[in-house]
Amino acid sequence: MSRKVTDKGVERRHVRTIVVGSGFAGLGLAIKLKQQRRDDYLVLERGSEVGGTWRDNTYPGAACDVPSHLYSYSFALNPDWTRSFSKQGEIQQYIRGVAEKYGVLDKHVFDCDVTSVRWNAETARWDIESSKGSFTADTVVSAVGALCEPALPDIKGINDFEGEIFHSARWNHDADLTGKRVAIIGTGASAIQIVPTIAPKVAHLDVYQRTAPWLLPRFDRPYTTLEKLAFKHIPGAQRLSRAGIYAARETQVVGLAKFPALMNIFELIARAKLRWEISDPALRAKVTPNFRIGCKRMLISNDYYPALDRDNVDVITDGIAEIKANSIVTRDGTEREIDALIVATGFHVTDSPTYNAIVGPDGRTLSEVFDQQGQQAYKGAAIAGFPNLFFLVGPNVGLGHTSMVYMIESQINYVADALGAVAGQGLRTVEVRRDAQESYNAELQQKLAGTVWNTGGCASWYLDKHGNNTTLWPDFTFRFRSQTKKFDVEAYSTTRAAADQKAVVPQ
């Protein structure tokens, strides 16, 4: 159990394992540890609630683009989903319900912003500083996720804007946009949900587009009473539905990663949708992408194009030169007055500020290591040079076609098995070997080289500043599941704990 220790005059609370973040990943690991009767852990969460990105992204129209039955834990199926693609509120309610059902909320420290995670060579532990005090841990698991740090555009004058301004992931619900002149910067996954929701009520909406996205139909509908009864009362019905969705989604990998030419089928569908939903040829030309479908994340919507076709909506493709107190000036010199500005420019993924908080044995932050050698990990879970540190949703675990919850559960199994090996074998430190990591990543990059993500002619957030795809998994997800089924201690350098430090394995 946790206890207080004093280190150089600083009183710290010590636990065997600290998990940072409680979205799908951190919460899932907490549940797994409880199921294994490993009680000596804490989850440090900077928010006041579980949920991660689904707690934070409360903008109008927020919803998932993966079908509900697949976007959930395999051990906590939900027969009560109201529709095939769930909205934000329902997903957040589901996550909170799972946390309550499995009784792990008492293992959380909420409103706890972790500011420093530093390796202590003397104690062979991690020293953690946070807004809720100091901690030490034998092992730290980072589960902060990829979509947690909003990215703000570097535009001259943005801090001088005097109207309402907020990022889509920090939506100001006190701001009434009704009858106002509004601008939104960005046309990614969040923007295509926001635009149709606010367009009917604002006086005018300017949509600033740098790159047009590819859109596919959104096959969303409410579940019937009969379907919900079947999911709840017929054994296997929901798992069969989930398996069908999984199989259908997995077939996209063939086009995305194996044979990019097959993506032409999706492009034909997207082009037909574009012609059908936008009547104005000039507008249609503006929002036609100039890269191959799949290179950037494929988006799904049935109301984005019709919203752009409204009389009170303009799509602006000229770059922004400057933001003034009450207007935006584009590079062609046009100045457009606005009352409110919505920034929907995504997140820091390959350059997450959270990497600056992690300091390894050699004094370098994880950010510095990534900057010097590129962002890479072993199975997305461990990084050479950082002992007793694991990641959930680390490098090259992301997906562009199916449910991240499947990948998260795969990693949870791997990390939980690693923690079990550390305890069971009496290990003091465990650190992935650099040669194992480099060999793993060489194979990854070789697989990624021919994918549409790398060859499709776009500049996406999948790529880091070195041009490497450090975000996506380039194969079938069941192959990742196979790779992470068991912790492979032979790929790691280890040291053994003293006899009096050896962990007791729960019975």
Automatic annotation (TrEMBL):
Protein name in the entry: Flavin-containing monooxygenase
Superkingdom classification of source: Bacteria
Keywords on record: Monooxygenase, Oxidoreductase
Organism lineage: Bacteria, Bacillati, Actinomycetota, Actinomycetes, Mycobacteriales
EC number of this enzyme: 1.14.13.-
Organism this protein belongs to: Nocardia jiangsuensis
Molecular-function GO terms, alphabetical: monooxygenase activity
InterPro entries reported in the protein's UniProt record: FAD-bind_Monooxygenase_sf, FAD/NAD-bd_sf
